[in-house]
Amino acid sequence: MVDRTVYAADAVPELPLRQILGRQKIPEDLCKLVADSGLRSVETFAMLGDTIAMVKQTIKTLIPDHTQLGADQPAQELALTSLAAVWKTCSTMQDHFAARRAKMEEDPSKVPEIPGEDHAEFRETFVSRHPDVVLPIHRKPHRKFVERVQRDHLVHGFVHFYEVGEIRTRNEQIAQKSGLSKNAEDLLRVVTIDQPVTASSESQVMDKLHAFFITLEYLNICEFSFKAGPLKYLAELEEWRHENRGLALLLAADSLIRKKVHRVSSDQRKRFSTFSAALLEVLTNHKQLWNDARSSAELDKFKQAATSAPTTPPKKRARSTSPPSPPSTAKAKKNRNRRAKAVLAKHSDRDKPDSKKPSRDARVPPAEWQKITSFKYVLGLAKGSNDGSLSSAECSSSPSSVEGSFAGSWATILSHLPSLRKQGRFFLELFSGTAGITEAVQLTGVPVLPPIDIVLSEMVREASDVVDAQVWQRVLRVLREGVVFYLHCGTPCNTFSSARKDDGGPPPLRSLEYPMGLPDLSLDNWCLVQLGNLFLGHTCEACVIVFDHGGDFSIENPLLSLMWVTYLMDNWIFHARALAIDLEQCAFGAPSRKPTRLECSNELFDPLAITCPGGHGHIKLKGKVIDPETGKRVFKTKATQVYPWALCAAFASVVHALWQDPFQHLQASFQLVTPASDRKRQLGSCKPWLGHRQMSSAQRAQWAGYQLKRGAAKPLLHIEMEPGQAIEAALHVIHPFTLAAPLSAPEEKALGELRRPAHEVVQHRGHLLRRWSQIAVELLPQSVQAIRQLPDAPLRRLLLGGADHEPPVLGQVCHVALYAAMLDACQSVDRALPQLLLEGFPIVGEIARTGRWPAYDKPQKDIPVREALGRAWAIRRKIIQRVAHVPVTENLQKIWEASLEDVHECSCLGPFSHEAQVSDILGCEDWIPTQRFEVVQKNKVRGCDSATTNMINQVTKITEKLQLPSTDTNVAALRMLKSIKPDEELAGWVLDERKAYRQVAICPDHRKFSVICLKNPKSGAPNFFIMVGHSFGLVSAVYNYNRRSAAINEFLVSLFGLVAFSFYDDKYGFEPKSTVESARLVAESVHFWLGARFDQKKLQLSEAPTILGVTYNLSAMQLEIKADRKEEIANEIDAILTSGLLDPGSAGKLKGKLMFGSSQLWGKVGRAFLRVISERQYLRFPVGHEFKLDPALKKALNHWRRLVLHGPPRPIETVSEKLVDAVVFTDGFTPDPRSNQREPDRIGAVLFDRRIGRPRQFTAVIPERVKKRWLQRETQIVPVEMIAAVLALETFADRLRGADILLLIDSEAVEGSLIKGYSSREDLCELISVFWDLAFQLRVRVFIDRISTDANPADWPSRDKMFIGESIGWETVNVLWPPSLFQ
Fold this sequence. Notes:
By secondary structure, this protein is α/β, with parallel strands linked by helices. Among the domains are: 1-102, no CATH class; 336-348 and 364-617 and 649-664, Vaccinia Virus protein VP39 (Rossmann fold); 856-1113, CATH 3.30.70.270; 1118-1211; 1218-1381, Nucleotidyltransferase, domain 5, CATH 3.30.420. The chain has 50 helices and 28 strands. Strands 27-26-23-24-25-28 form a 6-stranded mixed β-sheet, with helices on both faces. Helix 26 (695-704) packs across helix 37 (967-980) and helix 31 runs antiparallel to helix 32.
């Protein structure tokens, strides 16, 4: 904070003093008075005296007119006290600087560390002072460089000269040598020696110079302004470099000028006491340096070419020993070396534009000229030594590795898919041209697939035209198998090229405004544009598949290609978090400059970003030349489409590293350990996981793409390990959401059937329908005979679908014989079902076991049936009295009419007006009635029988745990189906049984437990109905009906190969559109034959079927909520907000609807706001005897209304098993209340992404204004740890967007709350809501698990030990705070 006082030109205090005046908030008049009195530096202020009294007296002496200090005595004393405070600060600073300078002079290698808070304050101060200055990461000075400049300035008193390579920015990784200093004080813990890195481009030089001058302002040495000189110098240098192109010229000019500033500062300190004065002196009076720089660079340009050349990186040692190569004869080895030499020799000749050696420049000595002309670029693979032998990288390729490449053709590749899947990972080049990259990659030993191009060459032995739909589908089929670990696309740029101009050559076909094609093109040009768009679409489609399977990709085009600005490419780059690698091909030996861009998914290709080093000429790409292969004249741009061999070799070296070990760059992190003295648990120990009762549900949830609850699934990292081991293990985890759901044998068989061509599937189903239709007709007499032998007439009528004398009709009869035949055919475990369907199911006592579902293991209150029968008369009187008091309403009339309809359909008997009538029909007196009441569902009213108040459900014992499909099951099936049929659109069919429970008969002996009591709306008296079929409200009805439903679904899956499910009376399934009609026909036919009646009006065959209230949009592969249901819930919320009241009953109903939406569609996004609604549901005694809305409820309701109307649909991602994209560790620290710790609450996080070169870490102190929003607790460790997870998503957003990540937290409470999506604490609910909102915005699929404290690498940044990560290359980034945390 610097004061903004405008001083006289000759009385401006130095910057350090002005900063102190600003921090002390000294008034402007007093600042001017001090400056006019000669107090303009920290040193002068510090010399005013030894005590405060002496300082005040000295100031009075310097300012004789005391009225200038203030109008009265108190004002004057206050001014003197303020100036004394400035003196105290200056004096302390001087003593501190002197002490530090003395320590550093003892050992010049010591570099004091700047605390993280101070460095952050430097940045904040700079940004606040310069709001108009953009401060990207490549212009921010690195903390280590700031520390070095501070050390040098303190020791020597002036600014040293630093080579451009010594100026380090935040985006660079500093190579360091670490060790303890001789005298290891607290501030001098680590000695670091920076290894300079040469700048590779002009823009990088300018960025580093910006960072240098920003550092000077950080340290109060020189302001970053025109007036002080830095901006003036940068502007002049920028203007000069545009007039004098070349990296060598720019480096020479900067070096001469800053060296001169250094000499002026050190040699003429009295005259130029500040860096600013020295800089302005050089810029004003030493302009000849610009010309000197031009001359110096011109003489050194050839030397620049040699010294700037890239060198071959050392070959990385393999982590493990490769399997031995097969035995090879000496003759075979000799032949292989001969062939490889021939290939390299061919490339060497091909890359030379002119075989003649250039004549020597007279200004260059012969020895130096020989060194320059013999130079070859050797980045990655060398082009060969003088004797033609292979480079070390080429020699490393074993015969077995090269032989691992696929030697077949794309025409026959599909027949080899099993062997390709078994063999593993391949490299593929799409739009390969002459396939130089494929050749270089193969020489490193990486298995390759045949390169794809339409033009034949030595590497492209078969022309593959991707415009041909069959060829392209073949390519996609291979990519979807996941066998390609790296895809390179050299997408044709002919129509996207910026070289197309209206200059007589090929005309432009696109523009920045119309990157997909100009309007009003001729037919020929329009066809060319559409062909280019097709290539672009194929490129993106192929890259998406490889990337989604965990592979990497790169796309190459000219730097100024219009392909980069198309919406397709822009969206894909954003989705894949791709990185732009800009290079110039002349740096790799190409005859033209040819600026090129690679969009890569992996940052390890960053070393390829090399621009022209100078020292050679460039061919202009205009006009035409003779193609030596075809003899035809072609444009020069086409002749330069072939990559230079050095670029291919460099590219291949990175691909080889990814193939060999994609985690090689993280080896230093894998070696991290926790000191034994700090470890809380024994290494290698583990806490045994005892399983969980919801384990199977948790697994199904994971297969569907979300987590159920903490502890329901086994932890991923359950063994106690070192932090480095935890990092390595986590990065090798298969993301749980990408695992495919295991299928039962019938389901596997059904999906296997769908792999066949559609016409074969339809034909096979047609054959099965004809066969089983004939069987149904043949067996019908057996079913009729068995039914007519039953002694109970009502039961016969229900099963026959009519009276005894009426002729039986297929489709109306309960076809028990067909049930038995189908159960035998599919070898079902439930062979007893037909007999129960024939004789009726018991509804009290133990529910009949199926053998299909697992045993019910929860404790139940065992009430014998005889106890209910003993109270039958008392229960009957109570029920009749209740029914008598029911008012006659329109809804009562509707359920009365529905009951009469049941009588007509033979599912019940009645109505009876007297109890004696019921007793006579049942043949007993101890019958128990059940009250039928109305249930309003949307626009209809249905009757529900209360079998709880009359003890019927209490005397029913559940024997098995009913297992029904859920939305998660459906999603898992759709994911698998889409992976099997990726190129086909899907559709769904739905069948809804009509009055399903009524179709299943009750055992006649148990009818006395299912007598319905209902008021007659005409007479007003209670009447009775005796149920023949099951009534809605019986516990046993749920199990007995679903037993039949499960059997029918088994028939559809096992006998007919349908992907079908049943949920109570809803039957549904999913199919490719080409076979879905046959699937629906099968479902209808099977239900018809069995006599399971369904509602024709509710049949669905659609791309967006609605199942259980959820719409499955199969064209977009996402779940949606129906518009009318959205409107219904939103209107209900609006009514509550308008009235300002919410009673417990309404809260319970609303919560049920919202829970449905939260679990089916919106995941964890809205569940945090269910807590307050749940609290209102169970509120008994409201304050003031009213149920008014409080602020928390209003906030929750408004949030849910917005979510209902505009909430995100739930995507149905396809299955592609792959490693996690990134791992995030988070941790929080808060002082132990039992100790005397005074450290602030702090959080930290570390990101490990295998596709970026350096892990990222951050730390932050939690501001007080954030903590004020929290509830009071003994310790705030839970919200602290939770905020760490929130900030990790916000800070690392650029690498987490659209990724499958693993979030590891060492707090079980935070882990559980985030997984559930809500908490019992309001403040935690708000943090959880922010977390899941961020997760949705980023479209990140986050799997949350626990990591032990000892194994958590985020423990170090959470305790501000950033140096541990920085010492092994971690990048420290600024934390980003979501605005919602402060609102």
